[in-house]
Amino acid sequence: AHLPNCLQRIHSLSASSDTTVDSFVSVTQEEQVSPCVDGQALLHKQVNRSTLSLSDSYTEFFDACDVILTSSSSENEASDSESCVSETASSTWDMNMETVMGAAHLSKGTNSLAYVSLNDVTRRSCLPMPGPNTSHISLWNILRNNIGKDLSKVSMPVQLNEPLNTLQRFCEELEYSALLDLANHAEDPFDRMVYVAAFAVSSYASTYYRAGAKPFNPVLGETYECERADKGFTFISEQVSHHPPVSVCHAESENFVFWQDVRWKNKFWGKSLEIVPVGTINLTLPSFGDHYEWNKVTSCIHNILSGQRWIEHYGEVIIRNLQSPICHCKITFCKARYWSSTVNDIQGAVLDESGSVIHRIFGKWHEGVYWGTPPNTKCIWKPNSMPKDQEKYYGFTKFALELNELTPDLKPLLPPTDTRLRPDQRFLEEGNVTGAEIQKQRIEQLQRDRRKVMEENTLLHQPRFFRKSVDSSGKEFWVSNGSYWKLRKDPGFAKLDNPVLW
């Protein structure tokens, strides 16, 4: 399939002379989708100079009610000016997302999309054992002395974990990397921004069914690699700091380079757990020299102690192209309200230099992203279908099920610090909860012992595959030092001195 035809099928362009939030669900006579000529959509840029009004980021947290989530549930009653209004557009989803979004990447030396059969590599479609029963665990006994504290320093029973690691969660955000492939071949900078925005939203989709368990915390020096020929990228992540915990990652393909360093502030507020990320996500597109940067929003898990747990994300994402001021994007993750259906809603716009709206996007972060203004909209992203019996297997997506798989041909290539080789996480995946708890406590004690020795000898931990850098404003960030895949190939990690983490 050629790129113009692919683009024609999955999106339409729209613009409006109205730049208020309310206009996200209203259509004026001037709003029309231009016909496609030779597979390329024409855009009516009939916009005025007024700026977009989007809700401000939510920076203050109020405790949640013990409720069962139906269409909407939240204890926070935002003002009318902060509310987001949305309606699900009627749009025909005429593409097989399991194939296109899960397996599309660009062939070497070509400018067209190639679709690689997922049958080339056999990957597992189920975990060895379902998740354990956690109904007997009293979270109140664990958390009652830690209200308002950072929970990253609180040891939790292994049953409350899922058999994935925070480093692997970073890789999970690349499930829909095909959106970045499309962005790298979109000539119009405003179109590229739309694809980048859809990708930013898609990274939250897998969390919808995952409020019941937490990922394992990486120990200092832990790593994770992922090489996906079907998606066209390689990925490496490392835990570079323990206090404060800092996880970093780097992924690249022929169509993009993606990296981020993020730390979290976790606080328990009695009935809910708030997770505030600190850090930035970076993306470069080699075809145009673009360098995008954006932030993550706050997440909150409700009904921690009783009732049905559910997760929501709220706040504002700002996406900027550091190489060009021609456009930027604002996306608001709307906060749920009792009397509306705004749960999981996102509203956004791509704006030009003057602040005028060029494109609008809307949808729900767990269901899909739409481009345009109703009724002239097209869906540009939808999550893949969930595996059978996903509720028994931690709510994992198909992609998540594959992340911790350890095959005989892969094992000798990995460094001993790779998450797949971590025994407590492997035991939990295999259903050995007792063994997982014993190993978890042993690994945590080993980390405390290593830290004590380093402090006594005034030694600092030196990350192996990432280095800290400082930008012109004095802001610190982490980037890959480019050594991982070179060492993996020659001489190979088995021939190197490696730290012992477990």
List keywords for this structure.
502 residues; alpha+beta; 13-stranded antiparallel sheet; two-stranded antiparallel sheet; 21 strands; 18% helix; globular; disordered N terminus
Write the layout of secondary structure elements.
Blueprint: H1 3-10, E1 36-37, E2 40-41, H2 97-103, E3 104-106, E4 113-115, H3 139-143, E5 161-165, H4 166-172, H5 178-183, H6 189-202, E6 214-216, E7 223-228, E8 233-241, E9 246-253, E10 257-268, E11 273-285, E12 290-294, E13 298-302, E14 310-321, E15 327-333, E16 345-352, E17 357-364, E18 368-373, E19 376-381, H7 398-403, H8 423-429, H9 433-456, E20 466-470, E21 476-480, H10 484-489
Helix pairs in contact: 8-9
Overall mean pLDDT stands at 79
Largest sheet: 13 strands, antiparallel
- Helix count, per DSSP? 10
Strand content: 25-35%
N- and C-termini, Cα separation: 47 Å
Approximate helicity band: 10-25%
Backbone structural class: alpha+beta
Unreliable stretches covering 5 or more consecutive residues: 1-119
Give the overall silhouette: globular
Number of strands: 21
Query: Roughly how many Å is the radius of gyration?
Result: 23 Å
Detailed description of the structure:
Helix content is 18%, strand content 26%. The chain has helices spanning 3-10, 97-103, 139-143, 166-172, 178-183, 189-202, 398-403, 423-429, 433-456, 484-489; strands at residues 36-37, 40-41, 104-106, 113-115, 161-165, 214-216, 223-228, 233-241, 246-253, 257-268, 273-285, 290-294, 298-302, 310-321, 327-333, 345-352, 357-364, 368-373, 376-381, 466-470, 476-480. The strands form five sheets. Strands 7, 8, 9, 10, 11, 12, 13, 14, 15, 16, 17, 18 and 19 form a 13-stranded antiparallel beta sheet that branches. Strand 16 and strand 17 form a beta hairpin. The longest helix has 24 residues, at 433-456. The model is unreliable at 1-119 (pLDDT under 50).
